[in-house]
């Protein structure tokens, strides 16, 4: 079903989306699945997905121009947001304005899962900037 004013409704099952991962000393070590905003799942409005970090895995401090929301589904994380650090747990929600430095680390003993939403039409539009 295609709406005349935009994309069609979509239903996506997380386990049917191929996982991507980063494993390097700048970006960090984590896996993620882009549920909306990837190839075949364009919404025209936002990008959303689920990231998973095993114990001691992390997403490096970075910025991007788009605002972002995190919702912690599982686990314990330490978030650096601007100049402050915050301890997060399942049920924690975070709003990150565009261009604000942020990064997370799994400080728990079990996997952590984060549902994220970016104010970008597709993941390809998000340019991650990591400090050197």
UniProtKB/TrEMBL annotation:
It comes from the Bacteria. InterPro entries: Cupin_2, GPI/OXD, RmlC-like_jellyroll, RmlC_Cupin_sf. Residues 50-117 form the Cupin type-2 domain. The keyword Metal-binding applies. Signal peptide: none annotated. Pfam families: Cupin_2. Keywords: Metal-binding. This is Cupin domain-containing protein.
């Amino acid at each position: 079903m295609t709406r005349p004013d935009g994309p069609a409704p979509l239903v996506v099952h997380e386990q049917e989306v191929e996982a991507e991962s980063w494993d390097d000393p700048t970006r960090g070590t984590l896996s993620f699945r882009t549920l909306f905003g990837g190839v075949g799942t364009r919404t025209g409005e936002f990008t959303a997905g689920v990231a998973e970090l095993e114990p001691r895995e992390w997403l490096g401090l970075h910025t991007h121009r788009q605002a972002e929301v995190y919702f912690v589904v599982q686990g314990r994380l330490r978030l650096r947001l601007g100049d402050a650090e915050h301890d997060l747990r399942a049920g924690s929600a975070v709003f990150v304005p565009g261009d604000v430095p942020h990064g997370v680390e799994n400080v728990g003993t079990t996997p952590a899962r984060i549902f994220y939403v970016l104010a970008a039409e597709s993941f390809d539009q998000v340019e991650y900037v990591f400090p050197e």
